[in-house]
Specification:
This protein is an alpha+beta fold. The chain is built from six helices and 17 strands. A hairpin with a 2-residue loop joins strand 3 (54-61) and strand 4. It is globular, with a radius of gyration of 18 Å. The two termini are 14 Å apart.
Length: 269
């Protein structure tokens, strides 16, 4: 092992996987000299790196814990719902606490371990729902920490329509970075299926926490069925609860530690 090394943890929440790095202190050697976005791209590469949907750098200041979150293409993201649940599991393993509060660019989060599940309470402003149009089809633009275009369609049909995905992903009303594209299939008043094409990954993932929240918000408004939902993504089932007026939410489901290891600088070559 080289003199400089990097300790990492890999965690997964309903198929959404992340690398966690304890950055409360300085990194060593080349790991300190390389930018975080470039380090993220190296680590997330599933052929030449470790492989992940994103990287979480856990930081700390006078106000407490925070994170610096990167998608696997090196881009920043304000929020990642499933990663917040992984943060709870990471804190249990590293900090030996059952619950952790931390700051994100989208607001404060409290993640609490409850057996195999981790429950995240997300503090975000009311996710205003706006109807937008492309190719004579209607979708909902909603921000649950990051923007999502929510399209109601059969999941199997939606995943095959790459032209529609591109249209929604870069819709002019979605902002300069564009939006995630989340497909919603309504199975009952409070039961939904969903899958998300994630920006920054530029592919479908097995689960997207903010996508699950966005799909649940649109589905509950469409069905006029309250504030609680069960949402099934390809990677598993999640429970959602919104505060009244959809001001803040709770996201609950499994999250687990996959492995911990130490990397040498060889991975940067």
């Amino acid at each position: 092992m080289s003199a400089a090394h990097l300790s990492i943890s890999k965690l997964v929440a309903t198929g959404n996987d992340f690398i966690f790095i304890d950055a409360r202190g300085p990194l060593e050697g080349a790991f300190a000299r390389i930018s975080r976005d470039e380090l993220t791209k190296r680590l997330c590469d599933r052929h030449f790196g470790v492989g992940a949907d994103g990287v979480v750098f856990v930081t700390q200041d006078a106000q407490g814990l925070a994170w610096d979150f990167f998608n696997n293409d090196g881009s920043h993201a304000e929020m990642c719902g499933n990663a917040t649940r992984c943060m709870g599991r990471w804190a249990q393993d590293v900090l030996h606490v059952p619950s952790v509060e931390f700051k994100t660019a989208a607001g404060k989060v409290v993640a609490t371990v409850e057996g195999e599940n981790v429950v995240s309470k997300l503090d975000f402003v009311h996710p205003q729902l706006k109807w937008i149009y492309a190719d004579n089809h209607r979708a909902a633009l909603v921000n649950t920490g990051v923007p999502h275009v929510v399209v109601q369609d059969k999941i199997e049909d939606a995943k095959a329509n790459w032209q529609a995905i591109k249209s929604w992903r870069f819709h002019p009303e979605a902002g300069i970075k564009g939006a995630n594209v989340t497909f919603l299939e309504i199975e009952g008043p409070t039961k939904f299926k969903t899958v998300t094409f994630e920006r920054g990954v530029e592919d479908f993932t097995l689960a997207c926490g903010t996508g699950v929240l966005a799909a649940a918000a649109v589905g509950l408004v469409d069905q006029k069925s309250g504030f609680d939902a069960e949402v099934v993504a390809p990677g598993g089932k999640l429970r959602v609860h919104f505060n009244r007026d959809f001001n803040g939410a709770v996201l609950a489901g499994p999250a687990r530690l996959v492995f911990k290891t130490v990397l040498g600088e060889e991975i940067l070559r």
